[in-house]
Input
Amino acid sequence: MKKVKSLLISWEALLAILLLISIVIGSVVSPYFLSGFNFNALTSNIMEIAIMALPMTLIIIAGEIDLSVASVLGLASVVLGLLWENGHSMWLAIGVALLVGLVAGCLNGLLVTKLALPSLVITIGTLALYRGLAYVVLGDQAVSDFPTSFTNLGFGSIPGTEIPWSGLIFAILVVIFVVVLHFSRLGRQLYAMGNNKEAARFSGINVGRVKLMLFMLSGVIAALAGVIFTARFSSARPDNALGFELYVVTVVLLGGVNIFGGRGSLLGVVLAIFIVAILQNVLSLVNISGDIQSLAIGLLLILSVLGPNIAQRIQVIITRRRLAAGSSKQV
Output
């Protein structure tokens, strides 16, 4: 019974309620909201952010952050476009793009672990570095003559459904990340690192190696998001996904992940992803400008930092009152 009560007052439960409320509001605001076509558009528009949010969740739980993900996406996109434009096969272009993401993530990880500098500072620097490299690689040009077999990854849906192929990729990754974070030794190590890095080291965890692995994973996944983004817009540009790092951090923190590490779940992050997707979709359906949408995301980012902390404090107060009531009855 206590576990049920704890679940009902958890941040994830509140997010589930907010998601249901968002769906109801969307269906009232627009008759097109519940259509299959709109579901496809809603899902497709958030998938790159959703995919990058998965490794970001692990990184923040471990007490770090990666603000370079959107720039890695843009760099991977232009590398893919340049290789295709120069006559290389699409599979080779995708493979090299993923390798670029791996190298970019590795550089982030080495700078954080070897120089012992804050990941916030390092990834702000590489955010500018990777975006600048994207402009060096392709300049102000764009590559857009991609084959249909490739663009179907962004435009197409699973046959017989309105689920985009990117949604299937996201679902597979969610299962993998849930197993890693919540049911593996590595997941327990990440929580330990986020709570106390020194204690984690003394317990035998190779903190530097785990951090390096997380940043490399983040780079590869960001490059994968770059491949999907390029396919969806059928365009490789150096400014692809400009500013997406804000959205990625927003959905992770809104999902209940503690910005200081050591606490959070992928369930909350997945719920937050679809709340943000519905918010963007509803605002678009009622012709709200992009500036107002950015304002709404900024407010969500503030809520995502304050909300879980307030919920945790409420839980602590309830627990203390319950213990106090139990002790008074014993007396």
About this structure: Residues 2-330 form a domain with the ABC transporter involved in vitamin B12 uptake, BtuC fold (CATH 1.10.3470). The two ends are 24 Å apart (CA to CA). Confidence is low (pLDDT under 50) at residues 1-5.
